[in-house]
Amino acid sequence: MKTRYIFVTGGVLSSLGKGLAASSLGALLKARGLSVTIQKLDPYINVDPGTMNPLEHGEVFVTDDGAETDLDLGHYERYLGVPMSRKNNATAGAIYYEVIRKERCGDYRGGTVQVIPHITDEIKRRVLSLAEEAEPPDAAIIEIGGTVGDIESLPFLEAIRQLRSDIGRNACLNIHLTLVPYLRVSGELKTKPTQHSVKELLSIGIQPDIILCRCEQQIPQDLKRKIALFCNVDRDAVFSAVDVDNIYEVPLSFYDEGFDQKVAILLRLPARNAQLEPWRELVHAREHPESRVTIAVVGKYVELKEAYKSLHEALVHGGTGNRAAVDLHYVNSEDITADTAADMLRDVDGILVPGGFGYRGVEGKIQAIRYARENKVPFFGICLGMQCAVIEFARNVAGLPQANSAEFDGAAEDKVIYLMTEWFDVRAQALRRHDAASDKGGAMRLGAYPCAIQAGSTAYRAYGCAEVLERHRHRYEFNNDYLALFREKGMAFSGLSPDGSLVEIVELPDHPWFLGCQFHPEFKSNPMRPHPLFRAFIGAAKEKKESAS
Ligand code: GLN
Fold first, then answer.
1. In CATH, what number is assigned to the domain containing residue 230?
2. DSSP class of residue 86?
3. Which ligand 1 atom is at minimum distance from the Cα of 357?
4. Do 110 and 65 share a structural domain?
5. Of 72, 279, 434, 481, which is the most exposed, with the fewest CB atoms less than 10 Å away?
6. Residue 511 to residues 86, 278, 377, 380, 514: CA-CA distances in angstroms?
7. pLDDT beyond 60 at 440
8. 107 shares its domain with 235
9. How many domains does the chain have?
10. Of 282, 299, 333, which residue sits at a domain end?
11. Tell me: the pLDDT tens digits for 148-167?
12. Does residue 508 lie within any of the structural domains?
């Protein structure tokens, strides 16, 4: 069967949840026995979000093949349960970069290079590449970032307009997500913004087949009919996307509306009945926790939750795996000092220090880690969080008061975290492969690397196996010159690269649960399969809470 393409555009305003809508539709089609992939096309000029401030753009999601991508790819993986790759995300910047590269190489043989056809052709090439697999997916969902009407979106919309005749009308579907606001004063749901947005799409030559309306409450039948009439869609092709408390309810609420069924009918997809039991169980488990734990997330991007999207989800998954609700308490690390740490962290059951870049807030993270270590509070350090745990241990246990990371103090006496130049020489080639389009990120260790887990360790108890594959995104590493000293002082190195050259996991065996990892396990956590480390961390937090009461 030929791959069917489903294009999802957004109208009226941004942040309507296009990513979740696309993911939820994908989950439903998968539950109907179809194979599905999703791609995000981002209209901004950055080549990838790798260089963007998390406070501006949210988290940078990393794939196995080392692509730094939009956080929506995290939703795609969590809802579909299949890994994404660099193919699943493209920005306008990456597309222009490729066209300009070809132009410099003379590939256009002296022709004038233009938005149409050259940019649009490159967009189409990337969309069509999703079907170029040994087993092409039954459905490819393409989410177009931004809002219809933006200047930046135009080449993308033009490309999907053209694709409809390239691929064939019956193999494509356009879904438009809009907002139907509720006016409290008059108690009315308003459809005019939707009508205007569809008009805007029509002026570009795209007629939506389905209108998905984000709204505070279900849209009554007569209003759906009105929208259908004014927007030229089938009467049964207007759906409500109602606000929900728990994002994993979205597939179930779409299913109840008949959204995926309409998609399958319009595309003539051979869909079986949806198997939604796992989703129902998940929502049930989330709604009926047996206990609660409070976790402090000590970081510097706490003003924007999106900056820790996967982390947030992974902690919640870890909770579900323990039938516990997780209350997340985001703490700005700049507010933590030796004097305030105890007051700020006394009431939490676990402390997590996530990844990050730059020195700001690091001393506060180190204080939080000291508090966790000395007071036997379960601690989980991720990437920079692990590096801070190493610095804390060096300074306060191993007798190296001047210890630091080379990232924060290049002149520090004891650079316990450092840039491994020899490592870069050996692997520079492999790294460059990951960073073909990025000069800034050239020295980052990106993507999935194997890690050997030592039997009998906290990590082994969590994973239950001797080798795992986890995703990285960092420049600095543990400095092996300190291995022997730290071992002697009580730190265990329970995860190493299989050749033994890189420290991937550190832990403190004389602490109930104290673990730092150089990789980002949050990227691989799934609501149906909570990540083993998150499950174990929340389990330890639960135990601490129960033993205290
Ligand atoms: N800044 C640190 C490094 O580059 C940690 C990065 C991270 O936490 N992702 O190694």
1. 3.40.50.300
2. G
3. 1
4. yes
5. 481
6. 39, 36, 8, 12, 6
7. no
8. yes
9. 2
10. 282
11. 999 999 999 999 999 999 99
12. yes
**CA pair distance 39, 215, nearest whole angstrom:** 25
- The three-class DSSP label of residue 378 is coil
The CA distance from 227 to 57, in Å, is 33
pLDDT over 60 (residue 213): yes
Q: Candidates 365, 476, 520: which one to mutate for ligand 1, based on the most atoms within 8 Å of Cβ?
A: 476
From the list 413, 446, 414, 441, the residue with the least C-alpha distance to 430 is 446
pLDDT-based confidence at 1, cuts 50/70/90?
A: low
Among 59, 359, 365, 387, name the best residue to mutate to test ligand 1's pocket (greatest count of ligand atoms within 8 A of Cβ): 387
HSE toward the beta carbon, residue 173, CA cutoff 13 A:
26
- Domain identity same for 372 and 388: yes
Label residue 327 left, alpha or beta by phi (over 0 means left) and psi (-120 to 50 means alpha).
beta
Give me ligand 1 centre to Cα 354, in Å. 10
- Domain range for residue 238? 4-282
- List the beta strands (DSSP E) in 333-411: 350-353, 379-382, 404-405
pTM of the model: 0.92
Q: DSSP letters of 268-310?
A: T--------HHHHHHHHHHHS-SEEEEEEEEES-TT-GGGGHH
Q: Which residues pair with 350 in a beta bridge?
A: 295
> φ, ψ for residue 230 (rounded to 5)?
-75, -20
